C-alpha cells in the first residue's frame, strides 16, 4: 500500500455571473459595437443548493455555498468556502456542479468563448498546491442514464488563480472548443471521468458545468 502524505488546503472565493458564453454576430445584427453578444447561463441570483450538489474526495474536505452581496454584476454572487484534502497520491478535490433537468441542454452553437468572473477573498493556505477547474458536460453521445457524469463527455479547463492576494474581480475567458487528443486545447477530455463519445466538445449539447 502506498503511503500518502495528508494535507488540507482552505480557500474563500466569489463567483459572479459564471458560465457565460459569447457569440460573434454579423454586421447587420443589432448588437454592441464590438460585434458580440453574451448569454449568462448562471447569474448566481439564487442559491438553489438542491440544484448545485457538492462532492468531496472520499468525504475528506468540505464545500459550502452561500450568496454574497459583493457582486460584479446584479445583486449577488456565489461565495464558495472550501477545503480540499490530499488523501491520494495525486491529491484530492472539492467541487459543486449544475446540470439541466431531463435531456434539455444549452445550445451554444456559434459561441466562441466561455467566461466567468471570480474574486479570491483569501488565497489558498498552502501556496501552489490547488488549481481551479472549470468543467463542462456534453451529452451528445449519451444513450441512457444521461444524468450521470460517467455517461457524458467531460471536458476540463485548468486555471492557476488561487494564490491571488489582492481580492480584485477578474475575468477568465476560454475558447469554447475541445477534444481528448491533446491537453493543449481550451477544453480537454482528460479521461478521468465520463465516456469517450465522439471525443469532440459539442457545444450544442452542454448539459451543465462543474467547478472544482
Task: Describe the overall structure.
The two termini are about 25 Å apart. This protein has strands at about 5-25, 35-40, 55, 60-70, 75-85, 95-100, 110-120, 130-140, 155-160, 170-175, 180, 185-190, 205-210. Strands 1, 2, 4, 5, 7 and 10 form a six-stranded antiparallel β-sheet that branches. Strands 3-6-13-8-9 form a five-stranded antiparallel β-sheet, with no helix packed on it. It has a two-stranded parallel sheet with strand order 11-12. With about 210 residues, the protein is mostly beta strands. The chain is globular. Strand 4 and strand 5 form a beta hairpin.
What's the short version?
The protein is an all-beta fold and 212 residues long. It is 0% helix and 44% strand.
What characteristics describe this protein?
212 residues; mainly beta; six-stranded antiparallel beta sheet; five-stranded antiparallel beta sheet; 13 strands
The total count of strands amounts to 13
Spans with pLDDT under 50 lasting ≥5 residues? 1-11, 25-33
Number of discrete helical segments: 0
Mean pLDDT: 82
Q: Beta-strand percentage? A: 35-45%
What are the secondary-structure elements, in order, as H or E? EEEEEEEEEEEEE
The profile of the biggest β sheet is: 6 strands, antiparallel
Helix content: under 10%
Q: Roughly how many Å apart are the termini? A: 27 Å
Shape: globular
Structural class: mainly beta
Radius of gyration: 17 Å
Amino acid at each position: 500500500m502506498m503511503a500518502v502524505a495528508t494535507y488540507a488546503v482552505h480557500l474563500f472565493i466569489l463567483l459572479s455571473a459564471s458560465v457565460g458564453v459569447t457569440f460573434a454576430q454579423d454586421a447587420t445584427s443589432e448588437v454592441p459595437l464590438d460585434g458580440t453578444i453574451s448569454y449568462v447561463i448562471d447569474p448566481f441570483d439564487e442559491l438553489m443548493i438542491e440544484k448545485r450538489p457538492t462532492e468531496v474526495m472520499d468525504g475528506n474536505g468540505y464545500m459550502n455555498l452561500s450568496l454574497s452581496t459583493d457582486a460584479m454584476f446584479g445583486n449577488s454572487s456565489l461565495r464558495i468556502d472550501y477545503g480540499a484534502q490530499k488523501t491520494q497520491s495525486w491529491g484530492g478535490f472539492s467541487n459543486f456542479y449544475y446540470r439541466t433537468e431531463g435531456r434539455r441542454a444549452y445550445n451554444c452553437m456559434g459561441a466562441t468563448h466561455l467566461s466567468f468572473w471570480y474574486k479570491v477573498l483569501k488565497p489558498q493556505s498552502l501556496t501552489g498546491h490547488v488549481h481551479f477547474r472549470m468543467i463542462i458536460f456534453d451529452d451528445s453521445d449519451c444513450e441512457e442514464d444521461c444524468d450521470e457524469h460517467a455517461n457524458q463527455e467531460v471536458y476540463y479547463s485548468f486555471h492557476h488563480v488561487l494564490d491571488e492576494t489582492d481580492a480584485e474581480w477578474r475575468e477568465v475567458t476560454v475558447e469554447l472548443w475541445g477534444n481528448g487528443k491533446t491537453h493543449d486545447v481550451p477544453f480537454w477530455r482528460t479521461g478521468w471521468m465520463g465516456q469517450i463519445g465522439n471525443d469532440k466538445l459539442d457545444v450544442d449539447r452542454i448539459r451543465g458545468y462543474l467547478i472544482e
